[in-house]
Amino acid sequence: MKFTWKRFARRTHYWASLFVALPLLVVIGTGILLLLKKEFTWIQPETIKGSSKLPGIGFEEIYNAAASVKVAAITSWDDIERLDVRASKGVVKVKSHNGWEVQVDLATGEVLQTAYRRSDLVESIHDGSFFHPSVKLWIFLPSAVVLLLMLFTGLYLFAFPLIAKRRRKRS
Q1: Distance CA 111, CA 105 (A)
Q2: What does the pLDDT look like over 8-28, one tens digit per residue?
Q3: Exposed, middle or buried, 49 (CB in 10 Å: 0-12/13-18/19+)?
Q4: How many CB atoms lie within 10 A of CB 166?
Q5: Is it the case that residue 66 has pLDDT exceeding 80?
Q6: Starting from the edge strand earliest in sequence, which strands make up the sheet with 91-96, in order?
Q7: Which CATH code for domain 45-117?
Q8: Per-residue pLDDT at 29
Q9: DSSP the chain
Q10: Among candidate residues 115, 107, 70, 69, the one with its CA nearest the CA of residue 86
Q11: Count H helices, E strands: the chain?
Q12: How many CB atoms lie within 10 A of CB 76?
């Protein structure tokens, strides 16, 4: 059997689609959710504006305000995953390791909102790290490379008939 690029492209495109189907479905589904995270508070809580853009409290007051919220389960600084300071909105978002977000007014130290934040979970599913750290590198990365190969073979399969048609018209 003689090697042809057309046959290679078709076979590669055909079999590669089986390999990338499930990871691609996960990436597309979670990607859509991440695109909509600001639209739905179920995914990511809305940022509440504080009373002033000028900070009037320190880290200790931020910690005390966040620790006062029972569902956040903050008993030490080790329970806090991150502080997200939004100075332009006068608020600091305190994210605990259990997924709860406490928004604290930067001027008064008042708790403005407490809500569960799912966007980080959705992001970890999106990049594959949710399943296992090696899934990111051994499933999702190869799937992305194969998908790129499928893009090239698909473009070739699309362009090949057009090029052949032009050649026939010229001759």
Answers
A1: 6
A2: 888 988 898 999 999 999 999
A3: middle
A4: 10
A5: yes
A6: 80-86, 91-96, 100-105, 111-116
A7: 3.10.450
A8: 97
A9: ----HHHHHHHHHHHHHHHHHHHHHHHHHHHHHHHTTTT-TTTSPPPPP-S-SS----HHHHHHHHHT-GGGT-SSGGGEEEEEEEGGGTEEEEEETTSEEEEEETTT--EEEEEE--HHHHHHHHHSTTT-HHHIIIIIHHHHHHHHHHHHHHHHHHHHHHHHHHHHHH-
A10: 107
A11: 5, 4
A12: 8
Structure tokens given for 36: 């909509």
Fill in the amino acid letter for 97. H
Residue written as tokens 């750290």? Answer: 133
Residue 72 · residue 100 · CB < 8 Å: yes
The three-point CA angle 155-159-168 to 5° equals 165
Domain boundaries along the sequence of the chain: 8-41+119-158, 45-117
Torsion of CA 127, 128, 134, 135, to 10 degrees: -130
| 78-121: pLDDT as tens digits | 999 999 999 999 999 999 999 999 999 999 999 999 999 999 99
Say what the pTM is.
0.80
Alpha-carbon distance 96 to 132, whole Å?
21
CA distance 89 to 137: 37
DSSP summary character for residue 61? H
